[in-house]
Design goal:
Number of domains: 1
Low-confidence stretches: none
Mean pLDDT: 89
Number of strands: 4
Shape: globular
Order of helices and strands: HHHEEEE
Strand content: 5-15%
């Protein structure tokens, strides 16, 4: 297996939004779309690191991966499989404006 990727992988936000918009007739991607894109980028990266797609090799590659995607940070804790690098952002919109939390 190759070394873990520690740099940003996949498209940057602006590149993803432009590609998504072009393929969807002008729609702007929502949270689940960004999440799915990041998941696909991570899965492909792990498969490349693992040199295959068997479950054990993919898991080892995921454990060795410490990176960022357009969705945020990614690192899996080995003892329980919890994703520990992603930070959720919570905002509140009220009457069309960003409001207090």
């Amino acid at each position: 297996m190759s070394r873990a990727c520690t740099a940003f992988i996949g498209p940057a936000e602006a590149e993803f939004v432009a590609a998504y918009s072009a393929l969807s007739g002008g729609s702007i991607p929502d949270y689940p779309a960004a999440q799915a894109a990041a998941g696909a980028v991570l899965a492909a990266s792990c498969a490349r690191q693992a040199l295959g797609t068997d479950r054990g090799s993919l898991w080892e590659a995921a454990l060795a991966t410490d990176t960022r995607t357009l969705f945020g940070g990614f690192k899996v804790r080995a003892d329980d499989g919890v994703q520990v690098k992603h930070q959720t952002l919570l905002v509140r919109w009220s009457a069309g404006r960003l409001g207090p939390y």
